[in-house]
């Protein structure tokens, strides 16, 4: 697979999000199968893997570490930490706390360094400059190679980047959720920061394989995010019709067109779709070979501008999961 650059880090054009192996999409495969699937993704050319300390209370990192151990040095490994003001209300405590989070992740992942270490969510009570300062120290110590933020604002990105240049911003982005096109993506371009879209297939919606009778159980976020409610599945049909018609023309799938569309947009965009099925992993990574022409891309953009999107994915909605059986 071709490579792209997230500032100084070279990664495959499409990465792999491992979250679904322990978190967020209901029942997951056995450990042995999960490990095999991640190794298959590597064999298919993927060299960029994404996890977080919060996925399955550290279990996801253990799984990812074990899966990628045989080729650790050949891949770019990203994980994330969350730190709150309650936990760290002085600069000294903040550094200590982040170092503890990092230590624990390194142990679970069975590695000596993290290539890309993201702050999972910004705590408004902790200045982003203080986090950036600690990240600079971790880079100096060789414990991380680069750092990033997730779901941050332009102001938070600018301020943090002044202290320690950011490697990548990981935020929600897909042909269905384009809010960061307005400001964050242009800012990444201006500052030379990579952009890593999470949920690039809108939690699978853009594959066209889910219908209003699809069932979701357990911690599957599709039980609560509004783009999957019956009404919105119907309301968003024009978007699926658009990508399906382009897919048919190109001999591709709707998921592949959705990914090819964002790859065409900017060369510093590297999506990390997640799947637990080999045929879907092959499909998603295969999108790196689908090239849209300038005319095709402009046609999609033109038609997209006329389509209203219904529903979204918010942390607030996802928090409602804990009230469901
Ligand atoms: N920074 C953050 O706050 C944040 C938030 C969410 C996610 N993430 C990261 O981003 C990664 C990707 O996010 P995501 O998992 O929400 O992405 P996604 O790829 O948009 O959605 C994954 C879901 O779509 C299904 N799917 C994927 N490819 C498919 C295909 N070709 N056909 C049909 N269904 C398909 C998967 O089902 P199956 O697994 O059953 O195939 C899974 O349920 C995560 O793994 C995680 O590492 C970060």
Can you give the mean pLDDT? 96
CATH topology: TIM Barrel
Supply the CATH architecture.
Alpha-Beta Barrel
Tell me the strand percentage band.
Answer: 5-15%
Q: Please bin the fraction of helical residues.
A: 40-55%
Order of helices and strands: EEEHEHEHEHEHEHEHHHHHH
Structural class based on helices, strands and sheet pairing? alpha/beta
Distance between the termini: 42 Å
Quickly name the level 1 CATH class.
Answer: Alpha Beta
Keywords:
alpha/beta; 40% helix; binds NADP nicotinamide-adenine-dinucleotide phosphate; TIM Barrel
Describe the structure.
- With 325 residues, this protein is α/β, with parallel strands linked by helices.
- 40% of the residues lie in helices and 13% in strands.
- It has helices at 31-43, 59-68, 91-109, 128-140, 154-163, 184-191, 230-235, 237-250, 254-265, 278-286, 294-304, 315-319; strands spanning 3-6, 9-12, 16-17, 48-50, 76-81, 114-119, 144-150, 168-172, 194-198.
- A 7-stranded parallel β-sheet has the order 3-4-5-6-7-8-9, covered by helices on one side.
- Strand 7 (144-150), helix 5 and strand 8 (168-172) form a beta-alpha-beta unit.
- Helix 2 crosses helix 3.
- 44% of the residues are buried.
- NADP nicotinamide-adenine-dinucleotide phosphate (NAP) binds next to helix 10.
């Amino acid at each position: 697979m071709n490579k792209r650059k997230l500032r100084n880090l070279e990664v495959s054009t499409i990465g792999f999000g491992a979250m679904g192996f322990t978190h967020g999409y209901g029942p997951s495969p056995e450990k042995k199968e999960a490990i095999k699937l991640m190794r298959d993704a590597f064999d298919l050319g993927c060299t960029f893997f994404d996890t977080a300390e919060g996925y399955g209370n550290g279990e996801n990192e253990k799984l990812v570490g074990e899966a990628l151990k045989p080729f650790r040095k050949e891949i770019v490994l990203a994980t994330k930490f969350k730190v709150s003001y309650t936990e760290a209300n002085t600069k000294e405590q903040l550094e200590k706390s982040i170092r503890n989070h990092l230590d624990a992740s390194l142990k679970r992942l069975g590695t000596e360094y993290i290539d890309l270490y993201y702050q999972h969510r910004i705590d408004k009570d902790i200045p982003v400059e203080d986090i950036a300062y600690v990240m600079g120290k971790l880079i100096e110590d060789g414990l991380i190679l680069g750092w990033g933020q997730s779901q941050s604002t332009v102001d938070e990105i600018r301020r943090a980047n002044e202290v320690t240049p950011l490697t990548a911003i990981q935020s929600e982005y897909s042909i269905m959720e384009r809010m960061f096109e307005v400001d964050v993506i242009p800012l990444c371009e201006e500052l030379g920061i990579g952009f890593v879209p999470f949920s690039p297939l809108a939690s699978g919606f853009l594959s066209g394989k889910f219908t209003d009778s699809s069932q979701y159980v357990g911690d599957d976020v599709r039980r609560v995010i509004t783009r999957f409610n019956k009404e919105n599945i119907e309301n968003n049909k024009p978007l699926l019709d658009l990508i399906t018609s382009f897919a048919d023309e190109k001999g591709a799938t709707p998921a592949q067109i959705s990914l090819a569309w964002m790859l065409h947009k900017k060369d510093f965009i590297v999506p990390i779709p997640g799947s637990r099925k080999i045929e879907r992993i092959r499909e998603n990574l295969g999108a790196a070979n689908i090239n849209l022409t300038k005319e095709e891309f402009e046609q999609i953009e033109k038609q997209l501008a006329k389509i209203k999107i219904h529903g979204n994915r918010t942390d607030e909605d996802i928090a409602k999961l804990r009230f469901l059986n």
